[in-house]
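Q: Study each token:
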Amino acid sequence: MDRHPKFQAAGDGTLLLNFGRYGEEVEVAAISGDGRRVLTVHAVGIAEVWDTTSGEKLGELRPESPLQGTKGTAPVGEEFEVFIEAAALSRDGSTALLGLNDGTAGTFRVSDGTRLATLHPPSEQPASSWSVIRAVAYSPDGAFALVGFSGRSVGVWSEHGDRLIAFLEAPAASKLVGRPFVRDTLVSSVAMSADAHWVFAGNVDMTSTIWDVRSGRVVFEAMDHAEAIVSLFDNAEGFGWATTGGTVWLSRGDASPTKAIASGEHWAEARFAGSSFLTRGFAAKIKRWELSGHHESLCEPAEPGFWADKAETLAFHDGWILYPQGGKRVGVRRGTEAFTIDRDAQLVTARFSPDGKAFATAGWKDDVELWAIPGGRLLHKFPSPGGVGDFAFSPDGAQLAIGELGHGGGGYVRHVYVYETATGHEVHRHAEHEWQVARVAFSPDGHGLASLGDDIVVWELDRRRVIARIAANRSTTGFQFLRDGRLLVLDQGRARVFRGDQKLLEWEAPVRFETRWCVSDDGHTLNIGMNQAVVRFDLGTGAVRGTWAAAMPRPESVTNAIARQFETRAGAALWRTEHGVYLHQSDGPRGWVQPLHLSPEGIVAVPAKDGAAVLRVAAAISMLGLVPFDGKLRASRVVDGEILLVNERGRLFRHRLPAHDG
């Protein structure tokens, strides 16, 4: 096995992906404030410092750790080895600040490699376990060394690390707001204002905090924008959305959305019915809520189990509610009447039949099960040999359609099966897809069936013939039959409405593969979720009705305006605050994030197809021009009218800044 793997299985079977091997390229680099020195990390635990004019090697740093050589502390179960995860050089390049994989950072004298200080949270024992440091920086004047830690915290030390100036902690240090990700609360971007008054921390989950470094007081905190929408609703109560951060935003009478519920919980799923809704937390806690704020706990399973990102496990029907009581157990309840059923595989989807006399479940097995209400007696199992991508009841509940998921990607036929629910007999199947069937739905009259695979196929069931084939792609978000029989299709950047194979409407819409959306209960409005906002369209004309956004601090994209024209290959969020302007990037496997650097003059270089796009950040983002560059960006800095860039081969690009055209 390679010594520095990027693709390996941990002792517990967890797959660690980083595609390739560490040490194949420069993955960490830094440029001194005066531009005279550059640091590169090629071998994972060795930093080399070079003179940018002569190319002479000036020093070599080999950090050590108390964990070195121990077993059980490295994620792959092998002996711990020091990795340099982040780096910065002091203003004159005489001192290096290195973030390591033992949860500490260190300052090092470049000339002889001596470690000057070990930087860690003051309340913790240094290097007690494996933990990466991804954000280190020097203040613009070089007087302070900044280190970002987990729990949204930042340490500020003197230049050489011999004196702790402040340890800054966020109020919601461990709170999760988005979909769970690796190292959610780890600081991934850190910076100090030019006047050394404010410290900014941007975290992996894209939340951010600014402190007054002298008092330690939080002066800015942005978390709401980082919550992802898990469900949209549009009914007699109004329209709005629920988020991963346990909030519900509600608009009544087209008013601006207000925060109707602020639970402080972490939700994976929500299902609305009028003023009631059900939630499933990421820890599988189930609650029933009213928009008034009243709620009751339905289940807190001892073992949460695994849940698919798009699991649909909550449902309402005529007073009955359906919800999971663990990974394999399903609960059904109406008032005091309740029962449970136990499956032999993980649950992914559960739905009531249209008449409410049964419900169906699907998950990690090759069939859909039908259960009686009340009592939970198993009525039938409907086979889908390649697994279940989706299932749907006909409007009268007499039939059940299943889209076959298949195993792996495309290249072979996936079937759509139609069964008689009363007998369990197969009454029809078609083999029109060579890609996973992600969605099936009956038309409102029950005579048509649509399925989404490599394209959308609409069948006339009575005559068993294809009546429409609608071009789609693998980023198609989905489709839905409207009440009048028209078919709404949403895919990358657009919405279309069909009747049969005739396209009636098409318009631009902010839709991506994972976008959440819903059609209003009255069938007149399409709601598309955005970043803590919803844009609404008239389904009769395709006209936009407006965008309703929750009021909160939000960043802007550095590259949105030029991304398509110049094919930019990196990006960042830009925070404009009364305490300064800051760049914010998230995290990923080593070497995936191309780090951007914002100069005190407000200039940033972004790798693009034909070089590096040089941007000025002022009241608006403007393009200064392109400079020659190729490869993956590892470090950049603006010094005295020049821009310096380092790529993954350790090559230094040096150019005069383009003249601003206005």
Q: What stands out?
A: The CA atoms of residues 101 and 132 lie 4 Å apart. Residues 1-20 have pLDDT under 50 and may be disordered. The longest strand covers residues 426-433. The chain has three domains: 1-206, 226-431+515-549, 555-662.
